[in-house]
Design brief:
By secondary structure, this protein is mostly helical. The model has no long low-confidence stretch (mean pLDDT 76). The chain has helices at 2-23, 55-69.
Length: 73
């Protein structure tokens, strides 16, 4: 009976240590997986934007059109 209690305590300690190590970004991610850098919430989307989806491109296009002929596009 004492053996089972000690085994349960040992398993709990190992799990807690592994969680603490992974929360600090240490190790290789475990189970042969390479670790990935965590992305912040304020980071722009990584997928490519088409020109007609990019608000900066559309503003620049409208600015150029107004500059060229003097009237709104």
């Amino acid at each position: 009976m004492v053996f089972l209690v000690m085994l349960a305590i040992a398993v709990t300690v190992v799990v807690l240590v592994m969680r603490a190590a992974s929360a600090q970004g240490g190790g290789s991610g475990g189970a042969g997986r390479p670790s990935r850098p965590k992305q912040s919430r304020t980071q722009k989307p990584t997928r490519p934007l088409a020109p007609d989806d990019d608000p900066e491109f559309l503003r620049e296009l409208e600015r150029r059109a107004r500059r060229d002929d003097g009237s709104p596009a």
